Amino acid sequence: MGYQDKTARLGGSLYSEVTDRIVAQIEEGTLPWVRPWDNGKAALGLPRNAGTGRRYSGINVLILWHRLFEQGYGSQRWLTYRQAQALGGNVRRGEQGTTVCYADRFTPREDDTVPAGPDGEPRQIAFLKRFTVFNLDQCEGLEDAGSSPVTTWNKALIIPRANALIGATGADIRIGGGEAYYAPQDDYIRVPRPEHFHEPINWFRTVLHELGHWSGHRSRLDRLPDTGFGSPAYAREELIAEMASAFLCAELGIVPTVRHADYLGAWLSVLREDSKAIFRAASLASKAADYLLAYLGEGGEDHD
């Protein structure tokens, strides 16, 4: 079995496992990046490594959020078994870890049979490197590991912070009219006035969704597709903006009551056809969220 076959086999099971679960959730009417934050248990925010303090990113956010709500954990902090020991604690006996991953590449040895690239050099082979992590609720002796500031529910703090991010981007946001959209050719966002939303907090969620699109402009992350409404590429871009908004809302403490779920059928088609699509979309969504959070001067991601 060649390297490409081996890496496809090792990564394929994780791609399929995660994608199948997400497809099943969407079919049931549940968006896996939208969770019941008001259940009184889970802390707001994106999952972070308890040892480094850095945010997890991409598909790992969805994997860890799924585990968080499945098990009812109250912490957004995760770490490996060795990290728990290095911090002076330990994972409780019998606890089951959660598999996270990040994409990496390697160049095979000269004697391996791997197709050469256009320049005659051996191609690099992509693979998923896996890690097992545990929630702080699964550990003992690590009470101080989760003591970093957590995202607050206090709207008096949430709204100024959200406004600060929106203002810091310098995006051309035109308020008024009856619908929200991003116009890439003219590089501006249109959004209805806050009072037109049943709950004003949803205005921020909508602006963050459109800023997700805005981040993909060719002068920024250069991600936007050339095709228009109804195409698979357009559906993928909507999925990216949807998840970027969810990541931003979680990190800013915004708990919206409306969701942009107009593209469920198109998303399901994309995910069913390609088990890696949700991994790519989640990665690009994290890059968009990190790009926007950088306007607040915040740190970046951990694993991708």
UniProtKB/TrEMBL annotation:
Top-rank taxon, per record: Bacteria
Entry's Gene Ontology molecular function annotations: single-stranded DNA binding
InterPro entries from the UniProt entry: Antirestriction_ArdC, ArdC_N, MPTase-PolyVal
Pfam family, one: MPTase-PolyVal
Residue ranges of coiled coil: none
Domain Polyvalent protein metallopeptidase: 161-283
Domain N-terminal: 14-134
Protein name (database record): DUF1738 domain-containing protein
Lineage of source species: Bacteria, Pseudomonadati, Pseudomonadota, Alphaproteobacteria, Sphingomonadales
